Every structure is written in C-alpha cells, then in structure tokens.
Amino acid sequence: MEDLYLELNSLLPQTSRELPLPDQLDEAANYIKELQVSVEKNRERKRKLVTTAALEKLNSTGSSSMSSSVDVSVPKRLPRIEIQETGPIFHISLVTSLEHKFMFHEIIRVLTEELGAGLTHAGYSIVDDAVFHIFDCKVEDCDFGATSRISENLKKLVNSVN
C-alpha cells in the first residue's frame, strides 16, 4: 500500500504533495480523471485523422464506391496543420505525405529554437503514405502576441512546402 502511495504521490505536482493525505488522494483522483479525458480526446482526434487519410487515399485512387457517415472535409493538398490552444499549452497535429516527413524535425526546431516553446510531447505514426505528427508544447510567455506568432510561423513553414 505504501509503494502505491509513493508511486501515486510521485505523479502529482509538487504543490499537491504539501496537502494532507486525504486531499492528496482527491487531487490524484482529479488528475487521473483529467488524464482520462485527455486520452479520449486524443483517441477521437486520431480516429478523425485516420478517417481523413483513408478518404484521401480513396479520393486519390478515383474510387467512389465507399460511402461514409463521417462528415469530414478532405483537402486535396498535404501537408496540413491544425493548432489548438489551451492556455499556455499548444496541441499541434500535422499530416504530411512521406516525402514531407522531414517536417517533423523542422516543426520541433521552430517550436524550440525560434519560438522558445517547451516541447512536452512529440510523436508520429505512418499510415499508408501519410505521416501523422502530434506535438504538445508549453509556452511560458502566453500572451496574444506569442500565440499568434507561433501559429503564423508554423503555418508559414507548412505552406512553404505546398
């Protein structure tokens, strides 16, 4: 039981560790619920991206025999970027073709070196000839100027290869 407590306590932010034990447990339960919600949102986003990639592949082959109940608009060009902002946290989804997979490193470089964002997660998956990149980063100076500058620079980078 003590090992479980220590492991759970190590996952909590430093400020939560100063609380009494019952409050720490409540804090841990809330943190776990937040993580579950985040996982579900990411699964939904992944499902939409995979559906979009499948529809793009179908459209590129010229076949129209598949009907889909998913309402997804499919742009004809890749790469494509989507930026979601939640306070100082940015969630960036990038879909590229295999020939543009170098953009993974370019996005990381722009986020960390040029924009000073702290990268908290970066990953990618390859499905057929599409590469799905996911980036999460935190911006310390989260004012309107910083958020618009990040969005503009990333979109400019992505549009430069179109």
Strand content: 15-25%
Q: Indicate the structural class.
A: alpha+beta
Instruction: Tell me the strand order in the biggest sheet.
Output: 1-2-4-3
Helix content: 40-55%
Protein name: BHLH domain-containing protein
Main location: nucleus
GO molecular function: DNA-binding transcription factor activity, RNA polymerase II-specific; protein dimerization activity; RNA polymerase II transcription regulatory region sequence-specific DNA binding
Domain BHLH: 1-35
Features:
single chain, 162 residues, alpha+beta, Alpha-Beta Plaits, 2 domains, 4-stranded antiparallel sheet, 4 helices, 4 strands, 49% helix, globular
Detail the topology: elements first, then pairings.
Elements: H1 2-11, H2 21-61, E1 80-86, E2 89-97, H3 103-114, E3 118-127, E4 130-138, H4 144-159
Antiparallel strand pairs: 1-2, 2-4, 3-4
Written description of the protein model:
One of its GO terms (cellular component) is RNA polymerase II transcription regulator complex. InterPro entries: bHLH_dom (IPR011598), HLH_DNA-bd_sf (IPR036638), MASH1/Ascl1a-like (IPR015660). Helices cover 49% and strands 22% of the residues. Mean pLDDT is 75; it is low at 62-76. By secondary structure, it is α+β, with helices and mostly antiparallel strands. Helix 3 packs antiparallel against helix 4 (144-159). The radius of gyration is 20 Å and the shape is globular. The protein has helices spanning 2-11, 21-61, 103-114, 144-159, and strands at 80-86, 89-97, 118-127, 130-138. 14% of the residues are buried. It is built from four helices and four strands; from the N terminus they run H-H-E-E-H-E-E-H. A hairpin with a 2-residue loop joins strand 1 (80-86) and strand 2 (89-97). It folds into two domains: 1-59; 80-160, ACT domain (Alpha-Beta Plaits, 2-Layer Sandwich).
